[in-house]
Amino acid sequence: MRVKKVVKTDPWASLIMTDVDFNMMPVDEMRQRASRAIRAIASESAANRLDLSVHVDLEALEADWRELEASNTVSLHQGFDWCKAWSQSHDNPLLLVRGKLGQKTTFILPLELVRGPLFRTARFIGSPHSNINTGLFSSDLGDLTPQDFAASVIQQLEEKLSRVADIVTLEKMPFQWRGACHPLASLPAVRNQNASYQLPLSANFEGTLAQINAKRRRKKFRLSEKRLEALGGYDHIVAKTSEERRAILDLFFTQKAARFKALGLPNVFQDEQTQAFFHRLAALGETPDGQPLELNAIRLRGNTKAKSSRSPDCRARAIMSSASSARSTRPLRPIAAPVNCCSI
Questions:
Q1: In a 3-state reduction of DSSP, which class is residue 126?
Q2: Regarding predicted confidence, which is higher, 329 or 128?
Q3: N or C: which end of the chain has fewer CB atoms below 10 A?
């Protein structure tokens, strides 16, 4: 049969073909099929659209956060326990940026707002005490290319944070991480002035030490050991109880203060908030995902007071944590992290 051309004002006009033979169907059924098709197209479009939201409550994102953290592509400094301890000991407002593709959380950028004399800066939580910031990202970015993904993130960050922050600084982010390009590596960036040194941990100590100047390091170790033996010997202590962790951490702060003063350097562990942060981490102890902060000490025998502590500061602990889970690939080399800045 022949069908006359449909008037353009009909909203269903584009769904009816003209001058074509076809089987007639009831109008209601046709509209239902068209409606389902439109909803399917809209649903598919939403599933591939990146939507950002900003949150201020860590607990509200904990389930998604820990799921992303379990992927083993996350820096220690973006771990949930690390960020929670920092937020509980500092007064900076949280700006937790969550990105979703459809109903799936694709990434979380744990940021905090720092008010300075001139600008309000959104930065990674605890950034002054971190050396590698990765954020938390899923490996599945949908159909978005890395360039489109990064561009969308920056555009929406500007829209979401422009009323509360003057600058968003995503600093100390690696271009390459766990053998893959970082999702935001295509953003305009400058290299950080401090390189991050990483050493993969082998299955045994000999293999790990062989990656660097093993002969020279063994010689220095023997020399240090002889000096300690001359003082009566020593024990290597790993803090297990909360009391041991607290005592070693306090001693660490005391020794660091003395050393920084002797070198004429500012003491980055001096303020109460920073010390409270590390004490909160140390208090956590063992967790199913490991231990956020492990405390060690060298204690001279015959003396109940530790003479030297080797509490892992932010850099040492971060490098150890990263290397232990990525054993296989890179030799020791400096990895300069970019500083990605977006002025909004």
A1: coil
A2: 128
A3: N
